Amino acid sequence: MAVDNERTPMKAWLLLSILFLGYACSAADREIISLLVEPIKRDLSFSDTQIGLLQGVAFLAFYSIAGIPAGMLVDRRPRMKLLAVALSLWSFMTAFCGMARTFTLLFIARAGVGVGETFLSPAALSLISDVFPKRRHGFAIGIYVGGSLVGSSIAVGFGGLLYGWLAPRGAVNLPLLGHLEPWQMTFILVGLPGFLIAAAFLLTAEPPRLGAPSQPGSGGVREFYREHWRFISFHHAANGFTNLLAGGVTAWGASYLIRTFGSDVESVGPLLGFAFLIGGIAGMIGGGVLSDKLLRYGGSARLWMCGGCAALGALAALFLPSVDSVYAGAFLIGLIVMFGSVPYSVANAALQEIVPSGIRGTVSAIYYFTISVLGSIGPSAIAFVTDKVFADPARLSESLSIVVTTAFLVSMILYLLAIRPYRLVGQRGVV
Predict the structure, then answer these.
(1) Total number of domains constituting the chain
(2) Per the database record, which ranges form the Major facilitator superfamily (MFS) profile domain (predicted)?
(3) First CA to last CA across the chain, in angstroms?
(4) At 299, which CATH number?
(5) pTM reported for the whole predicted model
(6) Count of CB atoms within 10 A of residue 331's CB?
(7) Which residues constitute the domain of residue 53?
(8) What is the residue-averaged pLDDT of the chain?
(9) Looking at the domain assignment, is residue 1 inside a domain?
(10) What confidence tens digit (pLDDT) does each residue in 343-368 have?
C-alpha cells in the first residue's frame, strides 16, 4: 500500500470506503436526536435548554475529554481493531438512547456515543495519510468526511421516513424493553446497522504505518506544537467556530423548519436530508478536489478557500429569518452546510500535510478536542438565545441566524490570520 506509486492501490480505496461507511454511521447515530426533538419534548417534558445539553454538551464534552487518550491509543495500537470496538460501543449507546426514559439516562447514553465516536477520526486520518499521496489528500479526506453528511442525511431523511412509518402504529411493548414510543424505536433501529460495519473493520487488515520511524509520544507532540503553535492556534480556533455553527445547524435545522413553516417530522426529514447531502458533497468532496488543484499556488491556498467560504456562509445565514417557504429555508440550510463543510476536508488536509506519521493520531485527537469544545457550544448557544434572549420558541429562526452568522465571521477572520504562519511553515520546506 505504498503511497508513492503513480496509481493509488485498490486496497487504499477499499479502506477509504469502509472509513466512509464508519463516518456515515457515526453521523447518523449522532444526529438522529435532532429529528426527534419535538416528540422527545412532548413525551418527557424537556425544555429547549435540556435538548441543547443532550445534543451539545452530553455528546461533545465527553467526545472531547476522551479524544486525547483515544489519539494516543491510535498511535500505539492496531487501528482497525480499535475502530471495531469503538463502533460497537457507540452503536450500542445509540440504541440505549431508545431505552432511556429520563434526562439523566439520555445524557449518559449520549455521552457514551461521544466516547465511542472519538476514536474514529484520529484513526481514519492516520490511515488515510498512510495510504494516499499528498496530492490526493484533499480528495481522500473529502470522501471520508463526506460520510458525515451522508450520515446526517440518513438520520434526518431515512430517520424521518422511519419515524413516519412508526408513529401511526403508536407505542409497542417488547420483551425486556417494555413500553417504547415511536421515537424510542427509531433510536434502537438506527443503532443496529453499526454492528455490521464494526465487523468490516475487524476483518480488514491493518495497513503499515509509513513516514519517519520516530516513536510516538508526548515529547514529539510537544515539539510539533512548539514549532507550529502560531498556525495551529488560528487553524484550530477557526475550525472550532466552523464546528460550532455546524453543530447548531444540525441540531436545530429540523426544528427551524417545523416551527417556522408549520411542517411535520415526516415531511421535513427527507427535505432536510437532501439539503444536508447535496450541500455536504459539494462542500466536503467538491471543496477537497478544488483545493488539491489549487495547490499549484501553495498550501496556503487551502486556507484562503476556507476563509472565502466562511464569508459566503455568513451571508447565507443572514437570510434565515426572512424566507417565506419551507423549501427556501431548506435551500438556505443547504448553502450553509455547503460553505461550512469545506474546512472539514480542506483545512484538515492542510494540517495533515505538516504532521509526522508517528504522532498523527494524537495531533488529530487534539485537533478534534479543540474544535469539539467550541462545537459543543453551538446547540446550547442557539437554545440559550431562544429561551433567554427572545423567550419565544417561535423565534428560533432568529437565534439560528445570529449564532451561525457570528460563528462564520469569526471563523473567516481566523482562517485569514492562519495564512502567514502557514506560509512560514512552507518556507521551512514542510509544505
Answers:
(1) 1
(2) 15-423
(3) 23
(4) 1.20.1250.20
(5) 0.71
(6) 18
(7) 11-207+216-427
(8) 85
(9) no
(10) 988 888 888 888 877 788 888 888 88
